[in-house]
Amino acid sequence: MLYTGPAFSATALGDGIVELKFDLAGDSINKLSAAALRDFDAATQTIAKDSSVKGVIVTSGKPVFIVGADVTEFTGMFAAGEESVAKGVLEVNRMLCRFEDLPVPTVAAINGICLGGGLELALACDYRVASTAASMGFPEVKLGIFPGFGGSVRMPRVIGIDNAVEWIATGSDKKPDAALKDGAVDAVVAPELLRDAALAMVKEAIAGKLDWKAKRAEKLAPVKLNAIEQMMAFTSSMAVVGGKAGPNYPAPMLALRSM
């Protein structure tokens, strides 16, 4: 065991592969509370210091993957004011970036519900494998907010602007086949095959059969549209989203402006 905490554990599986498992103690689901995020970061930094690690799979010890952030913490966070919110969101972004920057390939094994911050964590991985029992999405706009842990940045680079706008501005859940079609996940398998599929994928990346560095670079580079194409994509999206959202539902338009 490389690391064990109240939410995350990191276990060496052999051949340089580590399983980073989210299994929140004392709860039936996995949610990204402030404490869980600090635990995730501690596990990440422990893995980063171990030169024997060659690859990481991210799994869940619950029937869900991650249901999202702990919304019960939002009231206190918002009451602290805009500057405090910005500082907190920036720190979570840094945590996910530290994980994304691990010098080894990473694969998320999405076994069930994967929403909001949970999907943002999965996007920080190089590859994503989903169970046929999974569902994923960004429901934040339904709460009057939008993805703030990197989802509005990574998603357009992973699935393209048009698809990302649809995922983020509508807040709708996606089934695995739709996620695969859009490119949000790299494979879909039966639930009982999920962990083995994630292991097989990370082994292929370690062996050089998958170019994980190129895959990661796509998230770090500008979107694959020139300035005119970007303007057209966002202008048309704003017209459609603005028409549907109306003046009393600002979150979808704020998400678009951020993107």
What does this structure look like?
The chain is built from eleven helices and ten strands. The chain is α/β, with parallel strands linked by helices. A seven-stranded mixed beta sheet has the order 1-2-3-4-5-7-10, with helices on both faces. The chain has a three-stranded mixed beta sheet with strand order 6-8-9. α1 (34-49) links the parallel β3 (17-22) and β4 (55-60). The radius of gyration is 18 Å and the shape is globular. The mean pLDDT is 95.
What is the compact description of this entry?
The protein has 259 residues and is α/β, with parallel strands linked by helices. Helices cover 47% and strands 16% of the residues.
Write out key terms for the chains shown.
16% strand, globular, 259 residues, three-stranded mixed beta sheet, single chain, alpha/beta, seven-stranded mixed beta sheet
